[in-house]
Amino acid sequence: MISHLNINGNVVEFTLILCDIGSYCIRKRYSSMRTIITGGAGFIGSHLCDYLIKKGHEVICIDNLLTGKMDNVVHLMGNRQFRFIRHNVSDYIYVDGQVDNVLHFASPASPLDYLEFPIQTLKVGSLGTLNSLGLAKAKKARFLLASTSEVYGDPQIHPQPENYWGHVNPVGPRGVYDEAKRFAEAMTMAYHRYHDIDTRIVRIFNTYGPRMRVKDGRALPTFMCQALKDENITVFGNGLQTRSFCYISDLVEGIYQLLLSNEYEPVNIGNPEEIPIHQLAEEILTLTNSKSKMIFKPLPVDDPKIRQPDISKARTILNWEPKIPRAEGLQKTLAYFRDELTCCGKDA
Ligand SMILES: NC(=O)c1ccc[n+]([C@@H]2O[C@H](COP(=O)([O-])OP(=O)(O)OC[C@H]3O[C@@H](n4cnc5c(N)ncnc54)[C@H](O)[C@@H]3O)[C@@H](O)[C@H]2O)c1
Predict the structure, then answer these.
(1) pLDDT, average across residues 326-338
(2) Start-end ranges of CATH 3.40.50.720 in the chain?
């Protein structure tokens, strides 16, 4: 007799067998959820792999290593709950056996990356999403899309609630990322409405933490590495543009809560504490005790001037909000970059 229990969100399956007359014993303790994470060797994807493995999932990470690296998942190699498949998800995806969840995180994510790989970014947001949804449909699995605050573009409403439709320039250089994600959301909703797929859409706001790449081009790793090397800190514009930074463990917890919920409309996950970029640079200078000086460079085209998630929905339906204060998150991330620069040399 096979039974299922839901323990803290983990579906646990066990078999009861008759041992003696009138008494049962448990033969097979559990068989876990089987979850695919596309982009699982990237910054966020690799933390999700760790988190779900701890929750008892069997995780299949599919990644073509375009912007991710094996170092992020090397500690999972040899773990029976983990499997790595090197594959471009813009091509047809084949996975044998049962699949319970497909989490689609594959995509270049930093502006430097999507400007270097514009066509790959558009393809993974469109064809990659189509293929991942197709897999979820074939396997009757739940699907979760990693979308982004960039769907709001340079916002005219502040903070940004989920029902704001955004202010995006489709033909600007950033359009390759913003429009790919907007298309991915539309495709996800179409599969939900027309194929009855159980879908989730998380709109992720700026997230930081260990495993970000030294040279990924986003403000936080750039400032940290410049400060650690006593180089000039390059702030774009006048530094008054604002961002809100969420620590990786808070994000991953929010994504998991969303996966377990029944919410198929988009949900913002991010930290609503908003600061000007020059303040972030100052905090990092203080933390590192660096001799670096701030210098100012022209603002990139279509760079959003303000960015703050309205997380009322996540608070209400997921009972989620970020817990890690910025001072603590910055310390943890700094320790990581210190190690990275020490082990890989100052030019890492
Ligand atoms: N980091 C953030 O602050 C942030 C904010 C909003 C949204 N997101 C979204 O979260 C996801 C992960 O972002 P990240 O910061 O971890 O970026 P990342 O670059 O570290 O990870 C992306 C991963 O996807 C892989 N990938 C890219 N194209 C692929 C393809 N065609 N086939 C297979 N694998 C492919 C890369 O190799 C990499 O491992 C992305 O979808 C991104 O849009 C991230």
Answers:
(1) 96
(2) 34-211+248-272+308-328
Atom in ligand 1 nearest the alpha carbon of residue 41: 39
The residue whose CA is least distant from atom 13 of ligand 1 is 109
Pocket of ligand 1 (CB under 6 A): 38-39, 41-45, 63-68, 88-90, 105-109, 113, 124, 128, 146, 148, 204, 206-207
Provide the β-strand partners of residue 268.
203
Q: Are 250 and 240 in contact (CB under 8 A)?
A: no
State the closest ligand 1 atom to the C-alpha of 213, by its place in the atom list counted from 1: 20
Closest CA to 203 of 159, 138, 137: 159
Is 348's pLDDT higher than 80? no
Residue 125 reports pLDDT greater than 50: yes
pTM: 0.91
Phi-psi region of 9 (alpha: psi -120 to 50; beta: other; left: phi over 0): left
Q: Which fold has domain 34-211+248-272+308-328?
A: Rossmann fold (3.40.50)
**Residue with the nearest Cα to atom 31 of ligand 1?**
88
